[in-house]
Target: RsmD family RNA methyltransferase
Amino acid sequence: MALLGQKRPARKPTRREKEVASRGTRNASDADSQWLTVDRLAHDGRGIAHDESGKTQFIDQALPGERVTLAIHRTHKRFNEAHVRARDNAADSRVTPPCAYFGSCGGCDLQHMALDAQRTHKVQVLGEHATRNGVTLPEIQPLGDDESRYRRRARIGVRVTDAGELQFGFRGRGSNQLVDITTCSVLVPELDRLLAPLRELIESLEAPKRLGHLELTAAEGQVIVVVRQLKAVPRDAQRWQAFAEQHGLVVGWRVGRDPVVLEWLSGTPNAAYSLSVGATTLRLAFSPGDFVQVNAALNQRLIDTAFEWLGDVSGLKVMDLYAGVGNLTLAAAAAGASEVAGIEGSQGMVDQLMVNAEANGLAQVSARRADLSKALPSLEGIDLLVLDPPRDGAQPLCEELARDLHAGRVSRVPQRVLYIACDPTTLMRDARLLQDAGYRVTRALMADMFVHTAHLESMLLLERAED
Ligand SMILES: C[S@@+](CC[C@H](N)C(=O)[O-])C[C@H]1O[C@@H](n2cnc3c(N)ncnc32)[C@H](O)[C@@H]1O
Model:
């Protein structure tokens, strides 16, 4: 009989559910009382120590050389996850985190480490990924700057609890819950100073529950706020308009589900950033949903380094895969390449790339849409291949290059590959494929694009011997 309108009786947990529960969370009172010394850092920035039985402990915010006792918050068969209960000494690299939310907010992992120590750690991580994959690297160049207010884009979650409390911020560490914030020390100042007023505005809205999240973008000369709104609320639209006027913002909302409609409530978006290539200054326009690197200064320096490595590219035929709105495509053209073809999966970004090429007078640029996980382009006659894939990497393409090289089809294999990656695991997997086929990594760089987090951007130049 159907239990309409009645509570279902509790069912027995499955064996899997029982196992997960028994693994579960131990509270601090169960914690180990041994003093352990932290040996090194895991790739995600947690300290690693071993207890008397040899079991590995991953410890939040513990640094190499520190003696600690632990509060274990999760046990597994081969390792435990823990945080520090007591610390006997402080590593030289320890600093006071600049943000009061560090530790609870999931946005940053490394604020307790000095910036140069963060960078040394990330260079080491990149090197370890290379070693693990058998890739031979030259010395890894670190690239970073001291400006840690770097994020020009952010997505802020908004939730109203059943008790009517507003939560406004990023997800907590290892949790789905939002950590309520009024400031963020890695946002560029024009975005950070908006957080407290935005929070106040949302509290005053008629229907804050209709709001999903906010996307903030600091473009040159313009700050754009896009509100994810489940259902339009006209009185709230007026409040957003007044807020936009007061703070000089462009505000839009994406309303509804299926289809979601983007409606501009105040101002007209005209987002763009500048990029210098030699004596040329490019202006790249983008829409709020398009990919752009979050750290503008490091993006510029990464491109400077790339063209320093590449030397004179005039007359070269270049293909830029995963091209976005043309960040590297236009840079290669401005540096003198004779033909540059960009391929990108989003038609909107392909169109934007072509608008950008035309606006910057770069007639040698072409672009088309393709899903590069399925359709591989012909590289016949290409001198330089630029790869800048998402986290999955570019395995199918690298496999195809390796097959062509093994089969002696050298005209289809570029002399040089410039590979930029946000995931060192897939980067080194792909680099190994290219290395086995005859490429050599001649330059390697770790760009600290995401300061205070364990993420790193890397760039390799791979070259094969002249035919
Ligand atoms: C890391 S971004 C790089 C964008 C650009 N190179 C830049 O520097 O701004 C990766 C790009 O790959 C695109 N992309 C993701 N998956 C793709 C696929 N399967 N085929 C083609 N493009 C894809 C994304 O839309 C995004 O623009």
